[in-house]
Amino acid sequence: MAGNSFGTIFKLTTFGESHGAAIGGIIDGCPAGLSLNFEAINLEMQRRKPGQSAIVTQRKEADEVKFLSGIFEGKTTGTPIGFTIENTDQKSKDYSHIKDIYRPSHADFTYDKKYGVRDYRGGGRSSARETACRVVAGAIAKQLLSEIKINAFVSSVGEIFIDKPYQDLDFSKTENNVVRCPDETSAAKMESLIREMRKNGDTVGGTITCVLQNIPVGLGEPVFDKLHAELGKAMLSINAVKGFEYGSGFCGAKMKGSDHNDIFNPDGTTKSNLSGGIQGGISNGMDIYFRVAFKPVATIMQKQDTIDSAGNKAIAEGKGRHDPCVVPRAVPIVEAMAALVIADFYLLNKISRH
Amino acid sequence: MAGNSFGTIFKLTTFGESHGAAIGGIIDGCPAGLSLNFEAINLEMQRRKPGQSAIVTQRKEADEVKFLSGIFEGKTTGTPIGFTIENTDQKSKDYSHIKDIYRPSHADFTYDKKYGVRDYRGGGRSSARETACRVVAGAIAKQLLSEIKINAFVSSVGEIFIDKPYQDLDFSKTENNVVRCPDETSAAKMESLIREMRKNGDTVGGTITCVLQNIPVGLGEPVFDKLHAELGKAMLSINAVKGFEYGSGFCGAKMKGSDHNDIFNPDGTTKSNLSGGIQGGISNGMDIYFRVAFKPVATIMQKQDTIDSAGNKAIAEGKGRHDPCVVPRAVPIVEAMAALVIADFYLLNKISRH
Amino acid sequence: MAGNSFGTIFKLTTFGESHGAAIGGIIDGCPAGLSLNFEAINLEMQRRKPGQSAIVTQRKEADEVKFLSGIFEGKTTGTPIGFTIENTDQKSKDYSHIKDIYRPSHADFTYDKKYGVRDYRGGGRSSARETACRVVAGAIAKQLLSEIKINAFVSSVGEIFIDKPYQDLDFSKTENNVVRCPDETSAAKMESLIREMRKNGDTVGGTITCVLQNIPVGLGEPVFDKLHAELGKAMLSINAVKGFEYGSGFCGAKMKGSDHNDIFNPDGTTKSNLSGGIQGGISNGMDIYFRVAFKPVATIMQKQDTIDSAGNKAIAEGKGRHDPCVVPRAVPIVEAMAALVIADFYLLNKISRH
Amino acid sequence: MAGNSFGTIFKLTTFGESHGAAIGGIIDGCPAGLSLNFEAINLEMQRRKPGQSAIVTQRKEADEVKFLSGIFEGKTTGTPIGFTIENTDQKSKDYSHIKDIYRPSHADFTYDKKYGVRDYRGGGRSSARETACRVVAGAIAKQLLSEIKINAFVSSVGEIFIDKPYQDLDFSKTENNVVRCPDETSAAKMESLIREMRKNGDTVGGTITCVLQNIPVGLGEPVFDKLHAELGKAMLSINAVKGFEYGSGFCGAKMKGSDHNDIFNPDGTTKSNLSGGIQGGISNGMDIYFRVAFKPVATIMQKQDTIDSAGNKAIAEGKGRHDPCVVPRAVPIVEAMAALVIADFYLLNKISRH
């Protein structure tokens, strides 16, 4: 597949650039008969969109989804669900100054070299704008998996980390602050750091932790489509992601087997959960938890030396509206991608046994 | 797809369990006319196989590949390449004692729950035995990409880390020691630790770093099949992998944009390379480097409390032949998976432009 | 895939029902840098749409395509091309009388049984309305394959057949009459028959012949994706199609090998062409010609006994606007599907050889 | 996909040429827990193989399947089923005389042009030898669909046709004669014609009719993967097939809607069945019946003028062992492909509804 579809059964195909007329997608494979809660879908869209607070980008989008098919009298029909989201506030004029310039650590250079043509307005297809479509599909996937709890939150910004295990956090507090960090002390420090970055025209990275609970046993399709491998691909496909780890992650690499193994309880649950809820690439019913690393956004408000498409020296200076830290806005995207992966494996698992 | 195929164009489908008659695979989509060097393929197989040294598992396999089709007079014909590898030394009797037991942190429990039937001999399909097939396909992919240099090595075992950047390492030294670490000082310490684990019947984890050089610009298919997302999925699908990061990775999450951005040189290369050779999900020509985290193998030679399939208490004790540390053996597997990913994107990129 | 995508590289995914807000699709994998001729695309749309003449359905649709992405300054960017087409004249009230009725030989019964929910307005997703999206994508595929000539025409309606081989026909005359038959004598008879059907509130079937010329050698991916097998699947996926044959077709089944074999000329062309331009599932450079059989449309303006969803007796009577013969309107759809198949194989063939 | 896989969930990938060491395949997606009857699988293999009677090719193959994985204690494990079949009687020396010759209406020319390299021994990958692998997979699919009845038979050879509707035939008689025609009168005439062809060193074509009964309602994935479209692709992918029609087929194209529509009975069955058991691309529970047209095999025992790869004149004369009529041997292949298609849709249909 040429990269614009995600999923095997529950499949999302998207289109759209940051400065085109609209973005949108088609969700195929959603089982028929699912009653959709459109307010819940809108809520997810609102969580993602820019202009929500003073710490994120000031671009204003209505971000209203128009469903064009696949839904009749409020229920999915089993036919593909097509949807569009208008780009209403793209301000093309903000980007004319970068027409031939390759901004450092952006996709300008690579898209130009790969395709030989580049929509220079904003990030074009490489912009995070397309993630709005993922959130729509993820919202529907979440409703298919009504029993499953998906909670993502910001676990670090720059060098500020939550210092508690996730089990000590109250997920209901995640939406209470603009950083989406359920630990209030850390949240305050993070917000402070982000405002400082904004003032300096700089950006900073961070990490998101996601916890999936009440997952049925048996999800995952070894050997290549292991559950954690698909989750990893899903998260790594989000803009600015540099790393993924689940369960004990990179720390587990330092450990000994005698310390790392999760011992079974009689009922099949485990006493510890360094496995992160996945063994042999298949869910075992325990919490699935993973962490996603985001680099600092490449668009900074400081001048940078760079080149243009002819190789001449140029200056890159960010204008327009940008995020000092994308991590809070990526929280609903991480949840959406997790929902898409789980939905696909949930359906595939129904046909595993004769 | 139900998990046993990898790739879109250059596609590998595998079969086989650790204790079945044979394992094997089919490579589809390899362009016709490629002259194959069978010695080179065998060399990769030898690198991976057990019984090579005193620090790894003592299971002896000839690991001889039999090519059954798709090759005529030494060249690929464009038709699918089928191959088998016999399992000659599986010692089924070593596993009869675990027939109904769920070994901690193994795939016994999840496979049983998902499929309702479980080949209890060894790890069955969940065993790392199937990775031998990946190495065969990866060896052929490497020959397709003759200009590209793929070098993986062990960068840490337990808490012992190489303390140099990869640019200061001599990759030709990787095969000089059983740990596959090109830094001799670290290699000696790692070997020591592994022997200690072997003596204690314990296991330890580690990490592998992989560097891809001389990569053409333009490989990767955004937005979902970004190059680093596919590399991540490829690595995460290898047994025991818990994490993947590329470029600045999790460290980049702590950085500021002004420090993180890679400034362009006039010729299109970059002064720094925190991007890890990939921008917007597409290769930019700079070195691609990534790190893969392996947990300690779950099969330890110490007694562990566990349960059987009826929920009764049981004891799991490893017998048979096991690895105190799989990381050295995984080096050729990491290279093979990298080669498969690059081969697929290399072919896809040929049809990106009109 | 769950049925709403067509193609491997040049891939079309569609959505939309006859009476939803809009229909549309996403074209993925179209190489970057192709200059699009939008008038040509519109022309194809006009050829397909209803309300063009007195012999076809009177439903009026502007059938205006809105391209939303993937095109910049008139050229394809290599990113997915999203498009929508509004349904402006669906007259939902025409279908309220069939809410629970299963119309004979329609998809009402099967969709209801499969999905448990049915959009009863018109044919919903089963309506031929979605073929408009195929024509959009086919029009773009045609422009990618600018050297290739694709000509379809009506070769029979009811028992009226063209009695000349296609080589004696002038394809430029196909659009000169409403039946899209390039043989004027046959066209007149066909038109007469269709008007009679319209008067009686009945429908009649027919066949379309399609000729592809100037096809490069080498298109097709044996053994399962043979060129004629994909063409067959493409045509059979069009509404009302009951049969497909290529080259000598069903007549060839009566022949002897000594009469059927195509002897080679020194330059690689063949003296005869019963092969229909395809040997071993791969194009050999000669004309590819095939015939597609269309059953009479099931919606007739006569009363028919039927049942409702509870199994009670009911009467089905067509109201609304219907076609006495869909075959003329299907000509651009057949061409569009042929273009999609050829485009996909054209791109795949570029990576067949090392 | 590059043509060597068939199916989405129940997926077969094959490899192997007529004169390579072996042929084989991997069946992925077969649900776990299915008890396999190996004798039944062997029986299907025996039905297909050459050397069974005086009217078919004299090549002798043991055609013994070796299952290498995916089956444990007689049941499928849900892991991929790998299998090989040795080529034991290929007589490579029979083909050395055609090393550079393009035999008329064979795949020699097209494979050489597409791949630039050609395994000239026999038909290589284009030979019907690979269909043995389809029969293995189809035999397993049949066992998954134990309630469904799949019966194919020869309905015509040359100009000799069965003149009864299939409902008047006794399928149990199909295996009673070498032609696999359940109508004894027609069978005798067909056998006579084939013997005559053999004597003359000529070949003749024919058709196979296949009837699927006891099919559940709801199989098929519109709009592109309609049940009849997938069946058509499946049949057209078999060697020598030139046409496919289902239900009323090409005859339906001559009919009027008032005569063609199938009226419902109160219980959902239909009084007539010109629909061929499929409406809107989805099965409606009635018999699915279709007809497949086979051209006469291109390998005849008469001299033919042809060219070699340099364009020089040459003579093609069939040596080795050939079939005067492949149609009887194709009967189990048609059944196998039907089983594969139905199995795939059967599994997909399980996840259509919430």
Automatic annotation (TrEMBL), chains A, B, C, D:
**Molecular functions (GO terms):** chorismate synthase activity; FMN binding
The note describing how and how many cofactors are bound reads: Reduced FMN (FMNH(2)).
* Organism the protein comes from: Aequorivita vitellina
Query: An example of a Gene Ontology BP annotation on this entry?
Result: amino acid biosynthetic process
Top EC group: lyase
List the Pfam families: Chorismate_synt
The enzyme's E.C. designation: 4.2.3.5
Name the record gives this protein: Chorismate synthase
- What does this chain do? This reaction introduces a second double bond into the aromatic ring system.
Chemical reaction(s) catalysed: 5-O-(1-carboxyvinyl)-3-phosphoshikimate = chorismate + phosphate
- Which Gene Ontology terms of cellular component type are present? cytosol
- Does the record carry Lyase as a key word? yes
User: Would you say which domain of life the source belongs to?
Assistant: Bacteria
Binding-site residues, FMN:
R125, S126, S127, N239, A240, G280, K295, P296, V297, A298, T299, R321
> Has UniProt tagged this entry with the keyword Lyase?
yes
State the similarity comment: Belongs to the chorismate synthase family.
Pathway where this protein functions = Metabolic intermediate biosynthesis; chorismate biosynthesis; chorismate from D-erythrose 4-phosphate and phosphoenolpyruvate: step 7/7
- Listed binding positions for NADP(+) are R48
